[in-house]
Amino acid sequence: MDISVAVSTNHYLWNDVIVKIQEIAQAVEAEHASLASRVKELEVELSVWKQAHATSRDAAERQIKARDEQLHAMKQPNGGPSITYEKSLILCIIDGTKTIFSPAYFKQGEEGGQQAAEELTRGIQQHLADDKDIGPQGFSLWTSLYINKRELADDMVVNGHCTAAQFERFCVGLSQTSSLTIVDVANKKGVDVKIKEYIKTFAGLPQTLRIIYCVQEAPASIWPVSSTR
Fold it and tell me: Is 0.70 topped by the overall pTM?
């Protein structure tokens, strides 16, 4: 074989190898940049989730503490603190495993949560407006929503009703209403147990005038869970 031909062939082969190595390097660099960008996006999303979770948890803890203090005061014997509750107590219990707010509220995030709470409260007040057993002093309304938060979030996201972030912000907005508490339970059985305990605790109090239990038949702003799936 001619030496010059062999050298030329080797030179061509080396050039081809170098070009391929450069292409691989460029592809790796592009993939690295894409992964780095995705990591930053996930870090931001994680930060939002942590902040929303902390806000929701703190709000729920404050509400539960306030209710525990009120309940303790109500149960004080005659020798206890002199506290007078002039208003009747109306309890609204929502079984979130059977009925839940319209998906339209979830899409609006925190604002949707606030709006849902306001409309629910207004609907209950209108429902009780003509109740003759409620005195002129009015009533205090306590609403408790029992849900499996993780399961409901997954259901909403999978069915395209909202994003995970929108769901979390919705819960934050809902929890900002002082008269509404979200009770997160592990499963359906847990919901039943919690609701029974709640009713048993408050039903015997002289201040309790009405207990509204929302399962399927509920105010206009509440939809059966089955209709959201």
Answer: no
